[in-house]
């Protein structure tokens, strides 16, 4: 796989982000040095040396020098007063641009970008008629110095690529921005990043942007942006309603929300392909949808790393309501899939992939097959995962098709299928299960279809199952609850058959909550691994391991 060469680099970067050590993401106001240029939407002076002698933004960008700042008063600013759609706000070398000043002008302390709305608009022609709007509102080409753009709404561009903003060979700091109602024929409705650009985005919203092809909100090719506190809402594209990232673009998402975005094809919220490997931390996918695959997220030929991520009520018409992996070795840790739906793989669909899943809860996802997870020609590693309340026609919790998943310390409880495999269904597959629980799934716990063999050892299976160390006694699973950690789990009640009955040679280092295993749960003086995703401890002493070790 193409992306394997960057796996180590991605992991290192992800760990850095996880512990909060990252490059600065917010530009600082220059208190000393350079000149200040004053801009009003109706400025007529070319001096630009005071609010009284304010000029236009286009004039200031043309005349400013490296080290200068441009202060822009509230109002609507357009790249031209004429009708030339190719004219854009071309950012200047080493010049920072700040919006949010009062309409009449004011001091730095009076600047408030939310109160004093400062709009950079491409609506240069007939108002409300997008056919005569600017092809590109803001542009940044080949700038050598990092610049700051802070405090603007960028809207109403209409072009081929990057109608809101186009960045090429540049790494600006973008802060306190709104990209809204931009549209393109091809890629990057709101923002287009290309040719080794590394912008940092902080406190930015993408809303109502569209792309005829990829990336309604944002598109990345050969570029690696870093996003913190960013929202993608109601953006639309053929692929990647919120973001589409391709061509070895390794990008960072921290505290990012995707909501109500849509795609005509794949990746309602996020679409990655051809090495476009993202690193996600504290990210939410909510009510995104795709006509084909990956309602929340679609990953093809990529290696995404996800930590502390929620997929809730996303939808895909075909596969992967929450997330779809194809030829992708995704690493998922501390993830919640809840209420997602698709025809197959309501929560997650894996296709020709080798993903690593740990500390995950699949709750209330639905599909025709594979309510929680559908594996097709895949070899997933699944450790400390809970499947509960998922439903389908076949394979309520999991459906395996020509796949060989390894399940360690996994709990299947209360999943349902209308025909076969309430817990898990397999066809032409060879799952290996150890230290796991299958309980109160309906109509049955596990179904082996044609061509399948399953190995189950040291597990609690309602109704029993052949294998070393297996038990059919009641594990006394408690109702799903927040028992610690990022995801909800089923605790083990006193006297549970799952306590201290696992295989000590195959015990996961920690349980789903991140508490170290094993614990002497039955008080006999011997610490033995519990069966399932939860390690019981009635002593009140728990040791938490915050980082996943591999």
Describe this structure in words.
With 550 residues, this protein is mainly beta. It has a domain at 34-147. The protein contains two helices and 43 strands. It has a 20-stranded parallel β-sheet that branches. Strand 1, helix 2 (57-63) and strand 2 (69-73) form a beta-alpha-beta unit.
Concise synopsis of the structure shown:
With 550 residues, the chain is mainly beta.
What is the secondary structure topology, with strand pairs?
Blueprint: H1 7-18, E1 36-39, H2 57-63, E2 69-73, E3 75-77, E4 89-90, E5 96-101, E6 118-121, E7 138-141, E8 148-155, E9 158-161, E10 165-168, E11 173-180, E12 183-187, E13 191-194, E14 200-207, E15 210-211, E16 218-221, E17 226-233, E18 236-239, E19 243-246, E20 251-259, E21 262-266, E22 270-273, E23 278-286, E24 289-290, E25 297-300, E26 305-312, E27 315-316, E28 323-326, E29 331-338, E30 348-351, E31 356-363, E32 373-376, E33 381-388, E34 391-394, E35 398-401, E36 406-413, E37 416-420, E38 424-427, E39 432-434, E40 437-439, E41 446-448, E42 455-457, E43 460-461
- Main sheet characteristics: 20 strands, parallel
Number of helices: 2
Distance between the termini: 21 Å
Mean pLDDT: 92
- Please provide the count of β strands: 43
Helix content: under 10%
Overall structural class, as computed from helix and strand content, comes to: mainly beta
Q: Which percent band covers the strand fraction?
A: 35-45%
| Overall 3D form | elongated
Identify low-pLDDT runs.
Answer: 1-28
The quaternary structure here is: single chain
Please compute the radius of gyration using only Cα atoms.
26 Å
């Amino acid at each position: 796989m193409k992306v394997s060469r960057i796996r180590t680099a991605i992991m290192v970067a992800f760990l850095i982000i996880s512990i909060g050590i990252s490059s600065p993401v917010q530009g600082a106001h220059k208190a000393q040095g350079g000149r200040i240029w004053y801009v009003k939407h109706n400025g007529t002076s070319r001096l630009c040396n005071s609010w009284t002698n304010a000029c236009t933004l286009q004039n200031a960008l043309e005349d400013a020098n490296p080290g200068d700042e441009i202060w822009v008063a509230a109002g609507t600013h357009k790249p031209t007063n004429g009708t030339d759609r190719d004219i854009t706000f071309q950012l200047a070398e080493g010049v920072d641009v700040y919006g949010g000043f009062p309409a009449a002008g004011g001091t730095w302390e009076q600047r408030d970008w939310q109160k004093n709305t400062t709009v950079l608009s491409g609506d240069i022609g007939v108002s409300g008629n997008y056919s005569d709007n600017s092809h590109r509102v803001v542009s940044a080409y080949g700038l050598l110095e990092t610049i700051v753009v802070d405090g603007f709404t960028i809207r109403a561009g209409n072009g081929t690529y990057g109608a809101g903003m186009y960045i090429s060979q540049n790494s600006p700091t973008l802060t306190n921005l709104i990209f809204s109602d931009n549209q393109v024929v091809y890629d990057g409705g709101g923002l287009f990043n290309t040719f080794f650009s590394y912008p940092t985005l902080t406190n930015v919203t993408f809303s109502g942007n569209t792309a005829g092809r990829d990336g309604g909100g944002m598109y990345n090719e050969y570029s690696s942006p870093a996003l913190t506190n960013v929202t993608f809402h109601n953006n639309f594209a053929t692929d990647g309603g919120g973001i589409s990232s391709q061509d070895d673009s390794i990008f960072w998402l921290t505290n990012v929300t995707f909501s109500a975005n849509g795609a005509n094809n794949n990746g309602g919220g996020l679409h990655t392909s051809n090495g476009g490997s993202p690193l996600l931390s504290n990210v939410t996918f909510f009510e995104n949808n795709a006509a084909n695959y990956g309602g929340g997220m679609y990953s093809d030929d990529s290696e995404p790393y996800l930590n502390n991520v929620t997929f809730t009520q996303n939808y895909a018409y075909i596969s992967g309501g929450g997330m779809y992996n194809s030829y992708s070795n995704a690493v998922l840790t501390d993830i919640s899939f809840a209420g997602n739906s698709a025809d197959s793989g309501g929560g997650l669909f894996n296709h020709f992939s080798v993903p690593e899943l740990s500390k995950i809860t699949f709750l209330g996802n639905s599909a025709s097959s594979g309510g929680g997870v559908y594996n097709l020609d895949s070899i997933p590693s699944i450790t400390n995962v809970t499947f509960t309340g998922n439903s389908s026609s076949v394979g309520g919790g999991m459906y395996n098709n020509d796949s060989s998943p390894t399940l360690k310390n996994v709990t299947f409880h209360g999943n349902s299928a209308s025909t076969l495999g309430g817990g898990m269904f397999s066809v032409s597959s060879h799952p290996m299960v150890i230290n796991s629980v299958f309980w109160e799934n309906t109509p049955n716990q596990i179904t082996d279809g044609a061509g399948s063999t399953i190995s189950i050892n040291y597990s609690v299976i309602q109704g029993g199952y052949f294998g070393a160390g297996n038990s059919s006694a009641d594990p006394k699973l408690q109702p799903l609850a927040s028992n610690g950690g990022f995801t909800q789990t089923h605790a083990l009640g006193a006297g549970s058959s799952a306590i201290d009955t696992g295989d000590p040679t195959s015990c996961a280092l920690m349980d789903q909550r991140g508490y170290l295993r094993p614990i002497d749960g039955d008080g006999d003086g011997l610490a033995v691994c519990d069966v399932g995703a939860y390690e019981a401890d009635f002593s009140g002493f728990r040791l938490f391991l915050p980082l996943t070790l591999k």
